[in-house]
Design a protein that fits this description.
2 copies of one chain form a homodimer. The first copy, chain A, is an alpha/beta fold and about 300 residues long. In chain A, helix 5 runs parallel beside helix 6. The first copy, chain A, is built from 12 helices and 8 strands. An 8-stranded parallel barrel of chain A has the order 1-2-3-4-5-6-7-8, surrounded by 8 helices. The interface between A and B is large, with 55 and 55 residues.
Chain lengths: ~300, ~300
C-alpha cells in the first residue's frame, strides 16, 4: 500500500481540489428526502437511516469534485449503536465512490487504550478510515498505536492549533524558550512522521491547523515544510481562501482544507428539496470551494 | 439533583473507600464463564455479550466496597455497534448496583462538536454517566458543552497530568512564567468549576492526575485545594499507596484512585474459574485496595 501522504497528494492533484467535505450530520437539520416512514421503530434507528441517506447524497454530490470526506464521529456517536452502524456504512459508501476518508475522532489516551482506539478507526475489519485525527497530549506512547498503521497506508493528523476562539488559551501559551506551545506540538507530529515521507515531500503524519488563524498557518508551514495540514474552519467558521493560502506547499498535498456546514446547510425554506435538487446544490458549492482553493494553492 | 462533587464525597465517605474500579474489557482476557455458545452469531456480538457478563460480575463483586466504576470507552467502542450497547447496559447495571459511573472517554473538540459528545456521555436518555473525562486542549469553548451538565449533578475530570511515561514530553513543558504546562491546565479546570463548589469543599470539575507522578500529585493538591482528582495508574501501572497519599484532601472526595487490571486480571491457569470464584477474587482485591487507600487518606 502506498503511503497515505502520497495517496492524499495524488488524489488532490488528480482533481485539482485541495479540499475535503466534512460530514457533520445534525439530525434536526437533515433535508426531508432522507426520512422514511417511521412506523413502530426506535427513534435513533430511524435517525441513523436518515443520516446514512444524507451521507450517501452528499458523497454522490462531492465525489466527482473533492478527494476526501471527513466524517465527524461525534455526530454519529450521538445516535448510539445505530450511529456506529451509520458511520461504518457511510465510510464504505465513500470508499466505493473513490473518496479518501479522514475520520475526525480526536482520540487520545495512554498506549494500551490508544491501541483500541487506533484499531477501531483504522483496522480493515472495523471502520477502516484512511486517516484519523488524534490529540497530542499523551506524548509519544499515546501516539505509537496509531503510528503503527502508517506502513499500512494510513495517515494521522495531530490537533496542533484548532479553529475555535478559545484555542489561544491553551495553544498559544508562551514557553520558556520563547516559542508557542502549538509549535512544540507540530514539532512532535513532525518527529512522529519523519520515517514516513512520501514522493511529494510530505509525511503521513500531519497537523490539524485551523484556517481561522492565518498567522499560525503561515508560521507552521514555514517551520514544518513536510507536515501536511488538515485545515478546518473554512466557510461557516469564517476562514477565507486568503486565510488558508499560506498553508499550501509547493507540491499538492501540503494542505487539505475542510468545510462542512457551508457545503450542505439548507435554509428552512429548502428542507423539502428533492434528493436531486439537494445533490445539485451541494455539488455546486463543493465546486465553488474547490475552485476558490485551487486558485490560491497554485 | 445534588452536585456531583457532593455525591462523590458522600459515596466515598459512606464506604470509607476513596477508589474506583476501572472497567477495561479486553475480549481475549475474559474468564471463560462469560462465554455463551456462539452458534451462527456475529463475532463482535458474541464478544459484546461476554463483555456485559464480565462487567456484571465485576460490578457485583465491587459494588459493596467501592463508590464508583470507570468504564474505558475505547474497549467498548472496539466492538462496534454491539460495544456501544454493551457499554450502555453496563452503565445501567452499575447504577442499579448503586455505583457512580465515571465514563472515561477523554473527548475534546470545538464547541459545536463537543456538544454532541457531552450529550452522548451525560444526557439521561443516552449513556447517562455521572461524570466524564475530557481533554483541555480546545479551551473554554470546548469545555462549555460539558460544563452545562454540572447543574444536572454531573461531573467532569480534565486530563491534567496523565499516568504514562511520555506524558512529560507534552505536560511538563516549562512555560515562560516558570511554571509547568500541566499547572495551567489545572488552573483552567479550577476556573471552569469555580461556580460549582460542594459542601465538602470540592468542585464538580476535577483533574485527572496520574498516580505514577507523586510529585505532581502533591504539587497540584497544594495549588488547587478545591479540585477533586481522579488518579489512574494505581496497581498494574505501578503507583503505590504512598504515591497517591498526597492527593487526598482533608475531607472525603479530594481524590478517587482508580485501578483496573490489578483488580480482575487472571493468570492463564485461572481462566476456567466459576463466576462465583471470580467474584470472590475480585471482591478480595477491591477490598485490599480500599483498605490500603483508606489508611493513607485518613
Amino acid at each position: 500500500m502506498d503511503l497515505f501522504a502520497d495517496r492524499l497528494s495524488a488524489a488532490i492533484a488528480l482533481r485539482d481540489a485541495p479540499c475535503a467535505v466534512g460530514l457533520d450530520p445534525r439530525v434536526d437539520q437533515l433535508p426531508r428526502f432522507t426520512r422514511q416512514p417511521a412506523t413502530g421503530r426506535q427513534r435513533l434507528d430511524v435517525d441513523a437511516d436518515a443520516v446514512v441517506a444524507w451521507g450517501r447524497a452528499v458523497i454522490e454530490a462531492v465525489a466527482p469534485i473533492v478527494p476526501a470526506v471527513k466524517p465527524q464521529s461525534a455526530f454519529y456517536e450521538r445516535l448510539g449503536a445505530d450511529g456506529y452502524r451509520a458511520l461504518a456504512t457511510t465510510i464504505r459508501a465513500a470508499h466505493e465512490a473513490g473518496l479518501l476518508v479522514i475520520l475526525d475522532v480526536k482520540r487520545a489516551d495512554i498506549g494500551s487504550t490508544a491501541e483500541a482506539y487506533a484499531e477501531t478507526a483504522l483496522s480493515a475489519d472495523l471502520l477502516d478510515a484512511d486517516a484519523v485525527t488524534i490529540g497530542h497530549y499523551f506524548g509519544t506512547d499515546g501516539a505509537a498505536p496509531f503510528l503503527r498503521y502508517l506502513d499500512a497506508g494510513k495517515g494521522i493528523f495531530v490537533v496542533t492549533h484548532s479553529s475555535n476562539p478559545s484555542s489561544v488559551e491553551t495553544q498559544d501559551v508562551l514557553l520558556a524558550d520563547g516559542s508557542s506551545y502549538y509549535h512544540s506540538v507540530a514539532q512532535l507530529a513532525s518527529e512522529w512522521g519523519a520515517g514516513h515521507l512520501g514522493a511529494f515531500g510530505y509525511s503521513s503524519v500531519g497537523a490539524v491547523v485551523g484556517g481561522t488563524f492565518p498567522g499560525q498557518v503561515a508560521e507552521l508551514r514555514a517551520g514544518f515544510p513536510a507536515l501536511p495540514f488538515l485545515i478546518p474552519g473554512y466557510g461557516a467558521q469564517g476562514a477565507k481562501p486568503e486565510d488558508v493560502a499560506a498553508g499550501f506547499g509547493s507540491t499538492p498535498g501540503g494542505a487539505i482544507v475542510s468545510a462542512s456546514r457551508s457545503i450542505y446547510r439548507l435554509d428552512d425554506s429548502q428542507r423539502n428539496l428533492s434528493r436531486d435538487e439537494f445533490i445539485s446544490i451541494v455539488t455546486g458549492r463543493a465546486r465553488d470551494m474547490a475552485d476558490e482553493l485551487a486558485s490560491v494553492s497554485a
